[in-house]
Design a protein that fits this description.
heterodimer, A: alpha+beta, Serine Threonine Protein Phosphatase 5, Tetratricopeptide repeat, Immunoglobulin-like, 3 domains, seven-stranded antiparallel sheet, two-stranded antiparallel sheet, B: mainly beta, Lipocalin, 1 helix, 12 strands, globular
Chain lengths: 345, 213
């Protein structure tokens, strides 16, 4: 609790310079903005021009020209509005007007201004991760006039590498494989993507810092099973059967009937005591075996299926091992755009 | 017989590692009849059975000694019947095996009953009733019968029938055994006045256990 109170006290002391950098401090310019909001365009114009003669920050200068552009648009002085917006774009090439909060006249003057000066805007480098040699970094930018545009990557140990050169107008998309001229992946480090547009004597360049890091390529885990395929039991319990009891009765019956049939009539009736004891034991064993759960029997179909499944998994694991060997020799490139230091020129 | 017992005792342990061997004691009980229904004996005794199995071959050696007592007429005396059965089997197909062997039974006192010896030829059917439970049915003819009191039998006049069961216990280390054997000799004698029937018939049951190696 005490720590948070200290933070509340300390943060405003540190932050004001940063916050005020993006707010208008100049009194004349603030008065000009106030006059514009009061629809006093003449006052806004005179105060706006007056503020430009004073010492302004870059941000304030851009706001001053923007105010002039809006004011001239409101006064239907389109050419002057275009000139003012040109200054805005030269000071802040990335500047865009909110179409929902800007009058159509001002928007059209701003668009005309963009077409009359050469700037490279909205340079974007996508954050991406890929295996060296198997992917590319996507970049895009917008050039406002037809011009020769050269894109280079500078920094690191490789000096400067030209990655694209084209005559373009409007949005341009580039895919950079992040490879050196000899095919090796670009070494890890901080780089700058520099886009330079030239037409006649005019040129404009902008840059986007990026950081490239190297990492190990993920290897594939070995398989213990194939998705959707499970091992089947290699034995199965046959259904209960009265066969043991039946066979026991048949065997015992044959023995006893045979004894009776084969005994000599002169010797009296045959003794069934011995055969009865053993036969009774067999019938009892047969009855117990009938009631008992049958012993599991090998399931040939399932054994064959499991064998094929094991063979398939072994084959796939061999392929994975080869793939992993290959991947361990590769490098994973990670490209991340860094915050820009300033606007282009 | 004594030499056979010695041979079994000496030779069987040496071949134990060959394949499955089982050996164990049995209690025997039997019914013996001779010539007419008047000579009727019943008795009990002890026995032993050894079995050796090697590939498609198997052999049974069965020894038994039963003390028979007359069932009714006291004028007849008790006698001991010592019997040796040796059977060699060869597996043919399905449940069927062929059997070849011999049997010898000696009566003591010698003149109280007939001693007999014969060569046995037959077949055996075996079936597995369930896990560890085997039963068998065997039958065959007894050729070349020799009797201590003389006499002969025709080619089909002497035959035998048998029934057996073994039940595994203690993970197959011990077998409970039960066997039934029926023998009939249609013996005829001739003292010069013509052929006289003097049949011999025995039913013998044996129950015991065996240790398997």
């Amino acid at each position: 609790m005490r720590r948070s109170i200290w933070l509340l006290l300390v943060v405003p002391l540190i932050c004001p310079p940063a916050l005020t950098a993006q707010t208008v401090q100049n009194a004349t310019l603030r008065r000009a903005q106030q006059a514009f909001e009061n629809l006093d365009y003449r006052q806004a114009l005179s105060l706006g021009h007056a503020s430009l003669r004073e010492r302004l920050t870059g941000f304030e200068r851009g706001r001053a020209y923007e105010l002039l552009g809006f004011t001239y648009s409101g006064m239907d002085s389109i050419l002057k509005a275009v000139d003012a917006f040109k200054q805005v774009v030269l000071i802040e090439p990335e500047r865009d007007l909110d179409p929902n909060r800007t009058s159509p006249k001002a928007l059209s003057a701003f668009q005309v201004a963009l077409t009359q000066i050469l700037v490279v805007r909205q340079l974007r480098v996508d954050s991406v991760e890929f295996i060296g040699g198997q992917g590319a970094v996507a970049m895009r930018y917008t050039v406002t006039q037809p011009s020769r545009v050269v894109t280079r990557v500078t920094g690191g140990t490789s000096g400067s590498m030209r990655i694209d050169s084209t005559v373009a107008n409007g949005q341009v998309n580039i895919r950079w494989p992040a490879r050196m001229p000899n095919g090796d992946p670009v070494p890890a480090g901080n780089y700058n993507v520099v886009v330079e547009a030239t037409v006649g004597q005019n040129s404009f360049s902008t840059s986007q810092p990026i950081r490239i890091t190297h990492g190990a390529v993920d290897t594939l885990p070995h398989l213990t099973s194939l998705p959707g395929y499970t091992y089947l039991p290699e034995t199965e319990v046959p259904p209960k059967s009265w066969r043991p009891m039946g066979l026991a009765l048949v065997y015992s019956g044959i023995a006893l009937a045979g004894t009776s049939a084969l005994s000599n009539g002169d010797l009296g009736s045959a003794s069934m005591r011995e055969g009865g004891v053993i036969g009774g034991g067999i019938v009892l064993a047969g009855f117990i075996m009938t009631l008992k759960k049958p012993a599991p029997q090998p399931a040939r179909g399932n054994i064959l299926y499991n064998s094929l499944l094991r063979e398939q998994i072994a084959r796939r694991n061999t392929e994975i091992a080869q793939e992993n060997t290959r991947r361990r020799q590769q490098v994973a490139l990670s490209v991340v755009p860094l915050p820009r230091a300033g606007a282009g020129r | 017989m004594r030499s056979l017992v010695c041979a079994v005792i000496v030779l069987v342990p040496g071949g134990l590692s060959a394949q499955h061997v089982s050996i164990g004691p049995q209690v025997a009980f039997g019914d013996y009849r001779e010539v007419s229904s008047d000579l009727h004996y019943r008795g009990t005794g002890l026995g032993a059975k050894a079995t050796l199995m090697w590939k498609k071959f198997s052999a049974d050696v069965v020894l038994s000694k039963v003390k028979y007592q007359p069932t009714s007429d006291s004028t007849h005396m008790d006698f001991d019947a010592s019997e040796v059965d040796l059977r060699l089997r060869y597996y043919i197909t399905g449940p069927v095996s062929a059997e070849l062997g011999f049997m010898n039974r000696k009566a003591d006192p010698e003149f109280e009953a007939q001693s007999v010896g014969a060569v046995t030829v037959g077949a055996r059917m075996a079936y597995v009733l369930g896990p560890g439970v085997h039963m068998s049915l065997n039958g065959g003819l007894l050729f070349g019968s020799k009797f201590s009191g003389g006499g002969t039998t025709s080619a089909l006049g002497a035959l035998q029938l048998g029934l057996g069961i073994t039940v595994d216990a203690l993970h197959g280390r011990v077998l409970v055994t039960g066997d039934y054997g029926f023998q009939r000799f249609s013996r005829t004698t001739n003292d010069g006045s013509g052929a006289l029937p003097a049949p011999i018939q025995q039913s013998l049951g044996r129950v015991g256990f065996a240790i398997a190696f």
